[in-house]
Amino acid sequence: MFQVDIDFEKEPVGIGKDGRSVYLKDIWPSNKEIAEVVQSSVLPEMFKSTYEAITQGNPFWNQLSVPSSSIYAWDPNSTYIHQPPYFKGMSMDPPGPHGVKDAFCLLNFGDSITTDHISPAGSIHKDSPAAKYLMEHGVQRRDFNSYGSRRGNDEVMTRGTFANIRIVNKLLNGEVGPKTIHIPTGEKLYVYDAAMRYKSEGHDTIVVAGAEYGSGSSRDWAAKGPMLLGVKAVIAKSFERIHRSNLVGMGLIPLSFKHGEDAETLGLTGHECYTIDLPQKISDIRPGQDVAVTTDSGKSFICTLRFDTEVELTYFEHGGILPYVIRNLTKQ
């Protein structure tokens, strides 16, 4: 049996041959002893021989074909690495702030939806949109691998967003799983398929949630995935601190219900269309200001705009932190 709760200053670590207690301080080397070992064992030749061969590689490395271009050559056939669309159609001028008009609710959640619920993780289910994509690209089921191994392919990861088999979406009336209702038709679809349907129809989408939305470990795809699905805003009772910041970084609008209010108290079912009014000039928006949200069912309520700093407003003006960084780099 091993003991780990030892007070090394007062308790011995063992008994010597003479029967006396031996403490850690009795066997711990001094700085002088350590320096002497380093001087005798860590020799300059070790570093010279290593760094002299560092550019030589090995036969396998040296046989790799190296493109002459300084820009990475994306392979359109790769199912592991794919050029993400974060800068597709980006102009050098910030697009400015935007509200949301007549957006459908993609998902209606209760409390404690974690980043593990949102972010693609684990194995790729055989019937999922990600599996369908891989099979269409010639990948056999035995070679699906995991979402983690394919996190460099946005096509796979977007399809895996909200694909957790234990996710609870109120639009499904108690059914657990990665599907939702396409509100205009009432059709039950995988979340990805519903999101693409809305996109093709020209509709924005939002997510409605309860308390502590995005709790758990910080995961970048928990924010990137919803953005690529076309989600424009998240209305929640409260947000996990880092996830709220990540949503802002991807250009999404985080809104908090007022204290004592949520979707249920306001009588929201998620079948409504939502309009979020924001000023057209970024200078007219303040961190934490009140924002009106109206629905096509006639309900109207006030939320707190969770852009918490002026810097976050700047990110929003640029459409997210990535376009903001690129635009600033080009000015240098």
From TrEMBL:
Source species taxonomy: Eukaryota, Viridiplantae, Streptophyta, Embryophyta, Tracheophyta
Any one of the GO BP annotations: oxoacid metabolic process
Cofactor: [4Fe-4S] cluster
Family of this protein: Belongs to the aconitase/IPM isomerase family.
Keyword Metal-binding: yes
Entry's Gene Ontology molecular function annotations: 4 iron, 4 sulfur cluster binding; hydro-lyase activity; metal ion binding
Protein's name according to its UniProt entry: Aconitate hydratase 3
SUPFAM superfamilies cross-referenced by the UniProt entry: Aconitase iron-sulfur domain (SSF53732), LeuD/IlvD-like (SSF52016)
